[in-house]
Amino acid sequence: MGDNNYATIIIMVTISVVQMPRMEGTCLLLLLLLSGGLSTLPPNLKEHHFVNQLMNWTEAQSYCREHFTDLVTVYNSDINQLLRSMAPNLEDWVWLGLYNDRYSWKWSMEGKHFYVGSTHEFLIWANGQPDCVNANEYCVALQGQTQMDDRPCGDSYPFLCYNASSTSYILVMESRSWSEAQSYCRTYHTDLTSIRRKEEKSNITLTLNGSGVQYVWIGLYRDPWAPWSDNTTSTFTNWAPSEPNNKNSFEYCVSMYSMPGKWYDARCNYKLNFFCFTGEVQNTNTVRSCHHVKH
Ligand SMILES: *[C@@H]1O[C@H](CO)[C@@H](O)[C@H](O)[C@H]1NC(C)=O
Ligand SMILES: *[C@@H]1O[C@H](CO)[C@@H](O)[C@H](O)[C@H]1NC(C)=O
Ligand SMILES: *[C@@H]1O[C@H](CO)[C@@H](O)[C@H](O)[C@H]1NC(C)=O
Ligand SMILES: *[C@@H]1O[C@H](CO)[C@@H](O)[C@H](O)[C@H]1NC(C)=O
Ligand SMILES: *[C@@H]1O[C@H](CO)[C@@H](O)[C@H](O)[C@H]1NC(C)=O
Predict the structure, then answer these.
(1) Is 128 left (phi over 0), alpha (psi -120 to 50) or beta?
(2) Which residue of 110, 160, 226, 293 has the smallest Cβ count within 10 Å?
(3) Which ligand sits nearest to residue 232's alpha carbon?
């Protein structure tokens, strides 16, 4: 075919029940074969496995990593449909490889990761935080001027910029959403402030002293529901209505309810069946391009 032609790759699906000798349960094995014989094709074999054993999310993750590649990543509705059809019962709750990592914080400035632990002991979370209320809190504000609290990024608060050229901290007393605050700081100063050192924390405390602010944005944030267990990112979701909701702030892992194939956040300590996959870890772009490969 010429350079400008696009070919639709045939997806051949084989579902078979395979008795795995080393596993207690029956394993439904699904092979997703992408054929087309093109050199530009991604690795062309991916197996999805339904594991008929009850485990909590972390146990399931370990099991998948030991026996297969990892917990499953769902890239699109086709894969979601395939998984759904593999669950033997209509009313199964099955773990997917998606979780809401409450400790995956990053600083806006320099893109450096935030480390929980001894190097940041001067940074204290307020009591019970981070709690990701309603599965909707992915930005961090200082509360009561000293302690950290995860808040909805769309909330409007005053914010703290850092100006690298004047090595100063600037409290901006206009209420803005976190990303508006970030834009402001990046335009007029350097960025929303980080708090990486004890000295930085005490300067910030001084800057805030007497301001009376209750919440003030700093440069700490995280990506919701990313990455998946296998470290890939996929923007496809299939949440049930009103989900995810992080009910009672205990729900940080994702399960699929087999009948409609919809997703729910759930307590990670529930014991559920789960889906694993075998195959190379692929990035989202590669997977998306499967249906229309240019050659
Ligand atoms: C902050 O830094 C910018 C350059 O990034 C500079 O033009 C500006 O004067 C500084 N503002 C303050 C308040 O220090
Ligand atoms: C903050 O305060 C310390 C003294 O506690 C000082 O040495 C430092 O230069 C100040 N500025 C910054 C940007 O941390
Ligand atoms: C805050 O400022 C007041 C004076 O305005 C001072 O008495 C107090 O010690 C300051 N607090 C801190 C934590 O620096
Ligand atoms: C995931 O990626 C991060 C860096 O982005 C790396 O530190 C980590 O080891 C990776 N985890 C796995 C399971 O590959
Ligand atoms: C899963 O169970 C193991 C013990 O078998 C426990 O150590 C772990 O914390 C549990 N994980 C969750 C998320 O509850």
Answers:
(1) left
(2) 110
(3) 4
Confidence (pLDDT) at 282: 63
Distance 176 CA to ligand 3 centre (A): 26
- Residue 249's contacts (CB-CB under 8 Å, 6 or more residues apart) are 128, 131, 132, 133
Under 8 Å between Cβ of 148 and 142: yes
Could you tell me the distance, in angstroms and rounded to a whole number, from the CA of residue 169 to the centre of ligand 2?
10
Query: Exposed, middle or buried: residue 230 (CB in 10 Å: 0-12, 13-18, 19+)?
Result: buried
Residues facing 274 on adjacent strands: 51, 95
Looking at 75-197, which runs of residues are DSSP E strands? 93-99, 106-107, 124-125, 139-143, 147-151, 157-163, 168-176, 191-192
- SS3 of 34, please? strand
Quote the pLDDT of residue 37. 32
Rounded Cα gap, residues 116 and 106, in angstroms: 11
- Inter-residue contact 43 to 110 (CB < 8 Å): no
In angstroms, the CA 4 to CA 11 distance is 22
Instruction: Supply the pLDDT for residue 283.
Output: 55
Residue with tokens 């054929």: 35
Q: What type of residue is 266?
A: A
Do residues 279 and 286 touch, judged by C-beta distance below 8 A? Answer: no
CATH numbers and ranges of domains, the chain: 6-100+228-294 (3.10.100.10), 106-221 (no CATH)
Segments of the chain with pLDDT less than 70: 1-45, 111-120, 282-295
Protein residue closest via CA to atom 1 of ligand 1: 189
Q: The whole model's pTM is what?
A: 0.79
Q: What integer pLDDT is reported at residue 230 of this predicted model?
A: 94
